């Protein structure tokens, strides 16, 4: 018998395991990172024409990455904290240098 079959439970009408939640969250985080990277790439083109209009978007992502780092510090480990802090620092520098 598959040992993971014993760890499955009904959650809101779907049979899931803790591994399903763990793996699904990992895929969700990876997909969100890809979308964020694509958005930054598109914003980089726009920032050359009107950087002041993008300040609220940059500030939002700066605070979001600080939040991600705090959540990773509370619930995970050091590895995901470092990229989030580096991204937040870069975005903070971008905010500080736009007039």
Let me know the largest β-sheet: 2 strands, antiparallel
Low-confidence runs: none
Radius of gyration: 19 Å
Q: What percentage of the residues does DSSP assign to strands (E)?
A: 5-15%
What structural class do the secondary elements suggest?
mainly alpha
| Range of helix content | over 70%
Q: Choose one word for the global shape.
A: elongated
Folded structure, characterized:
With 99 residues, the chain is mainly α. It has one domain (3-97). The protein has 3 helices and 2 strands; from the N terminus they run ββααα. The protein has helices spanning 18-47, 55-75, 78-97; strands at 9-11, 14-16. It has a two-stranded antiparallel sheet with strand order 1-2. The longest helix is centred in the first third of the chain and has 30 residues, at 18-47. The N and C termini lie far apart (64 Å). The mean pLDDT is 86.
């Amino acid at each position: 018998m598959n040992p993971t079959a014993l760890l499955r439970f009904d959650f809101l009408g779907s049979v899931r395991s803790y591994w399903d939640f763990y793996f699904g969250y990992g895929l969700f985080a990876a997909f969100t990172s890809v979308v964020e990277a694509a958005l930054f790439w598109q914003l980089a083109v726009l920032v050359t024409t009107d950087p002041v209009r993008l300040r609220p978007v940059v500030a939002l992502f700066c605070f979001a990455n600080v939040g991600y780092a705090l959540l990773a510090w509370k619930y995970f480990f050091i590895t995901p904290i470092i990229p989030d802090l580096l991204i937040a620092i870069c975005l903070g520098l971008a905010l500080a240098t736009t007039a």
